[in-house]
């Protein structure tokens, strides 16, 4: 019998971690995941994969850990001796990174280094392959459209600056030590499992709440930002494909189509048969939003970022050619799936506080 492959996923409780764990389990892997200690349950996205640790030979095992704790990471890598590490854990919210820049650097930048060092210290350089969750946020200030592996980086947030370190330390460990370490430069990818504070999920959740009369308006920031939105389930397959290549390398995963936030909002409300009343771009001298009438979508400057990324549009040609990867779900279909799932959740939710 051939040995099962072993994977370690950091960020296993996040959107991508959940889809990736599902994919790897379906391929016969033993999957170890890192989860953070929290005062309430944070494993909702992987509940369906949960296996009682008392069962014989469990294939999905969660370990407490944190990207800011070297000894913990070294111990988990030592215990699990993975064939593949997928480093998905991160403080992944761009706006929050302006509030918590030092923590974001610690978890996202130095956390990546800690894992690479764990592989090296434990003499696993020739055994363990490494995937780094790099991001289209690295491109930041628009210099070239569409953006490919060759486009220069210009990070526009503490998050992106931390991820820039992560990107380059991965390249360096590949070149310096011959490690099989790859960067997936992934453009935005969403799903019904997306965190509720990212704009797509915030919108689809609000649409469902408004449709069910549980919320009367949706506050948003920059409606003109343009993003290349794909489906998370398809992007985790791209991560896995990168790890199966003989040679490590860096790849863009994107759809090659970009959409404004405003358009996403329009499609989402259209799906539940509602018209939008757009309101307010300013605040009065006291800092209150102008206008008191009931409305559906209102711009609130508190969601503006100190520095914004205006336009992301990826060129996935290399991934198509080398990995044979291509997105399947278009953005319009993605919106409908997310609205449909949030409508179901809202119909079953007892009481929801106004967002
Ligand atoms: P999520 O925010 O949904 O998940 C992040 C995961 O990281 C969660 O499991 C979270 O734990 C965990 N985490 C956060 N901080 C720490 C820490 N200090 N120690 C250990 N675990 C931690 O992100 P996504 O799934 O959307 O993204 C996965 C990765 O891909 C991230 O690195 C993100 O930056 C990157 N990325 C995402 C893109 C996207 O569009 N989704 C695009 C490009 C890159 P908990 O559940 O407890 O919060
Ligand atoms: P992003 O995703 O910053 O691209 O990072 P997010 O959904 O937060 O923002 C996308 C765009 O929408 C604008 N926006 C708002 N954003 C939020 N969150 N809330 C609002 O109310 C709002 N109104 C407008 C933003 O200004 C922005 O332009 C995501 C994360 O998953 C990162 O981890 C990942 O690296 C990148 O995608 C690629």
Automatic annotation (TrEMBL):
The keyword Acetylation does not apply. GO terms for molecular function: GDP-mannose 4,6-dehydratase activity; NADP+ binding. Keywords: Lyase, NADP, Nodulation. GO terms for biological process: 'de novo' GDP-L-fucose biosynthetic process. Its cofactor is NADP(+). It holds the Pfam family GDP_Man_Dehyd. It catalyses: GDP-alpha-D-mannose = GDP-4-dehydro-alpha-D-rhamnose + H2O. Its EC number is 4.2.1.47. It comes from the Bacteria. Residues 8-338 form the NAD(P)-binding domain. InterPro entries: GDP_Man_deHydtase, NAD(P)-bd_dom, NAD(P)-bd_dom_sf. The keyword Lyase applies. NCBIfam families: gmd. Belongs to the NAD(P)-dependent epimerase/dehydratase family. GDP-mannose 4,6-dehydratase subfamily. Catalyzes the conversion of GDP-D-mannose to GDP-4-dehydro-6-deoxy-D-mannose. This is GDP-mannose 4,6-dehydratase. It comes from Aureimonas jatrophae. The gene is gmd.
């Amino acid at each position: 019998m051939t040995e099962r492959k072993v994977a370690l996923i950091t960020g296993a409780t996040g959107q991508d971690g959940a889809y990736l764990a599902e994919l790897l389990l379906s391929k016969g892997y033993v999957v170890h995941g890192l989860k953070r200690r929290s005062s309430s349950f944070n494993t909702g996205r992987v509940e369906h994969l949960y296996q009682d640790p008392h069962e014989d030979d469990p294939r999905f095992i969660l370990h407490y850990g944190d990207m800011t704790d070297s000894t913990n990471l070294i111990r988990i890598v030592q215990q699990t001796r993975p064939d593949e590490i997928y480093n998905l854990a991160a403080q992944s919210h761009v706006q929050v990174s302006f509030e918590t820049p030092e923590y974001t650097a610690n978890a996202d930048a130095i956390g990546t280094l800690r894992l690479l060092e764990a592989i090296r210290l434990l003499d696993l350089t020739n055994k363990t392959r490494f995937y780094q969750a790099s991001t289209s946020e690295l491109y930041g200030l628009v210099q070239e459209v569409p953006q490919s592996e060759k486009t220069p980086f210009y990070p526009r947030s503490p998050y992106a600056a931390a991820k820039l370190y992560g990107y380059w330390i991965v390249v360096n460990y590949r070149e310096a030590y011959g490690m099989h370490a790859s960067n997936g430069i992934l453009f935005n990818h969403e799903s019904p499992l997306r965190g509720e504070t990212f704009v797509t999920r915030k919108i689809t959740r609000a649409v469902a709440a408004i449709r069910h009369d549980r919320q009367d308006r949706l506050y948003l920031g920059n409606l003109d930002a343009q993003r290349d939105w794909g489906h998370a389930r398809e992007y985790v397959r791209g991560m896995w494909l990168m790890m199966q290549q003989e040679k490590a390398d860096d790849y863009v995963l994107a759809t090659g189509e970009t959409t404004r936030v405003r358009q996403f909002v329009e499609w989402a409300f259209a799906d539940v048969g509602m018209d939008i009343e757009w309101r307010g771009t300013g605040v009065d001298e006291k800092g209150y939003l102008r206008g008191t009438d009931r409305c559906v979508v209102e711009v609130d400057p508190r969601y503006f970022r100190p520095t914004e990324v205006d336009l992301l549009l990826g060129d996935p040609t290399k991934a198509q050619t080398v990995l044979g990867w291509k997105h399947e779900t278009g953005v319009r279909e993605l919106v409908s799936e997310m609205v449909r799932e949030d409508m179901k959740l809202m119909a079953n939710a007892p009481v929801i506080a106004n967002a």
